[in-house]
Amino acid sequence: MSRGGRGVLLALCLATAPRAARPTGFTDYGNDILASPEPRYGLSGALRLRSEIFANLDLDRGPTPSGEVFFPVSMSEPGRQVLYAGDLRLRTDLSVYAPGGMVAVKARIDVLDNLALGSGADGLTGDSRTQRPPGAAFRIKRAYGELVTPVGYLAAGRVGAHWGLGLLVNGGDCADCDSGDAADRVAFITPLVGHLVALAYDFSATGHLVRRRDEARVVDVEPAAAVRSWSVAILRHNTPAAHRRRNDAGRATWDYGATYAHRRQARDIPASYLPLAAPATVNAGQVVDRGFAAEVVDCYLSLDFGVGRIAVEAAMLLASVRQTSLTPGLGIGAEARARQRGAVFESDFGLAARVIGVGLDAGVASGDPAPGFGAQDGLSQLAFGKPGDLNGPQADMRTDRRIDNFRFHPDYRVDRILFREIIGTVTDAAYVRPHAQVRLLRLRGAELVASVAAIASWAVDVGSTPGGARALGVEIDPTLGYQTEDGLQAAFEYAVLFPFAGLDNPRLGLAAKAGQLFRLRLGFGF
Q: What pLDDT does 379 receive?
């Protein structure tokens, strides 16, 4: 997907989130604002530490025709099979409630976000006695206000963005999530006949900004280069408490939603975001008549019937770019278009009073015949790919003016190696994922759970695969997890990928070999 196409996905700034302490969208606004004569304050979050071992994730299949390897390798020992990684993050969600029960201000601040363990050694690495603090230790990801009115809820600011199952737009609220979407938005939500109706206007991107006289504020001097999005949605949402009441009564519960989003941009200033060797002087000559427009339709449905749950989400994106050139003054007389489709299915069934759980998940993302999967942003890969590459831009304006590969949000976790670490996300592929779990122990608010998932995957368009074959591989992902009611979470995760012919290297006559991953994850919630 092009940069513009990926941008459209972020226009879907509608949400459902399970915890009121971390509101991510329309179904959460206002539900924790209570009448009170005094100001109230809320603080929640978690400290996360992860340690990982990667064994042969380059699959010993050699480089692609463009010289890319499937996973980073040692600089001094290219044949080394094992690499290590570790990181930490402190996530804090802050809430301030004004007296009266109508106004709240909230923020998400991540401290040392995904900071690599051992980074920032002070002085010579062999003699380091401490770690230097990073230059940007605090990352303010959300800051917004909520207002409860007699006719609905108003939210404004930089808010979290999530929709449905998180296939397309994902707030990144899960314990193992690494990114998460946010939007500068004004949104209004009102209840209507048992549903929520939501309208949102997003300041998705703003053109070239120039400082004003006070050197503290800026003004947009190219309004036509601004990217603006608007969205409308209708949802039916039941709270977790409502689900429990209906389950106790033996009644099924439906949650569903549908949304439409539109995004547009008349002109563009590539010099404001392109990776240039030297900063360019931004003036009228840097403006490109872009003519970008896109639309997204996304629907989801979830059915909870007590002993199980099934859920589906499907999305379609249509986009067009009249002028695709990134070089001012050098026009390309060809319009680019995109038609991208994706869908997922999830299921969980509890047996023996939920001591045992089983389920089947599946998903598909439309493909594109261009070489490579196209999982990365096109700005990082301006040269058209070669047959046999792992990734590459999905359009070449000389011969290929379509970009049809749909990309799952990277925080929608499907596996641990193939899509997460090697390709980058699910795109131009289909998978099935049977899974099962068993509760080994429950004692005084603590649980020990073992689970396993198997993921079989295939390419949608065989021309995208490095090996020129449709079958990609089978991955086995077992987990042993422990959690307590007071916020401790610990998980030991393993994964092994058995690659198939779609990941081989026929150019060098090398078959891809199995890769493994070991991960230990600790979480301290509050």
A: 52
How large is the average pLDDT for residues 459-471?
95
Mean pLDDT for the chain overall: 88
Choose among 134, 53, 188, 170: nearest CA to 408. 170
- Taking the mean position of all CA atoms in its chain, how far away is CA 421? 14
Give me the phi and psi of 223, to 5 degrees please: -55, -30
Q: Are 514 and 56 in contact (CB under 8 A)?
A: yes
pLDDT at 502 over 70: yes
* Section 36-51 average pLDDT: 92
Non-local CB neighbours of 462 within 8 Å, separated by 6+ positions? 468, 469, 470, 502
Tell me the pLDDT band of 518, cut-offs 50, 70 and 90.
very high
At 200, the amino acid letter reads A
Which range of residues forms the domain containing residue 444?
3-525
Give me the long-range contacts of 447-451 (CB less than 8 A, separation at least 24): 447/482, 447/483, 447/484, 448/480, 448/481, 448/482, 449/479, 449/480, 449/481, 449/482, 450/478, 450/479, 450/480, 450/481, 451/357, 451/478, 451/479, 451/481
The answer to whether residue 11 scores a pLDDT higher than 60 is no
Residue 252 token pair = 């099924």
Q: Name, in order, each residue with C-beta under 8 angstroms of 258's C-beta and a sequence gap of 6 or more.
A: 233, 234, 235, 297, 298, 299
Q: How far apart are CA 437 and CA 441, in angstroms?
A: 12
CATH number at residue 406: 2.40.160.100
442-467 exposure pattern, b = at least 16 Cβ within 10 A, e = fewer = eeeeeeebebebebbbbbbbbebbbb
Q: How far apart are CA 213 and CA 227, in angstroms?
A: 25
Closest-CA residue to 106 (of 153, 66, 65, 70): 153
The Cα 70–Cα 59 span in angstroms is 7
State the amino acid at position 447 in one-letter form.
Answer: E
| Residue predicted with more confidence, 346 or 387 | 346
Q: Mean pLDDT across the stretch 492-515? A: 97
Q: How far is CA 511 from CA 24, 59, 419, 458, 505, in A?
A: 44, 9, 19, 17, 6
Mean pLDDT of 402-413: 94
How many whole angstroms separate alpha carbon 450 and alpha carbon 432? 20
Q: How far is CA 488 from the centre of its chain?
A: 25
* Ramachandran bin of 252, using left for φ above 0, alpha for ψ from -120 to 50, beta for the remaining angles: beta
Rounded to an integer, what is the distance from CA 32 to the centroid of its chain?
A: 26
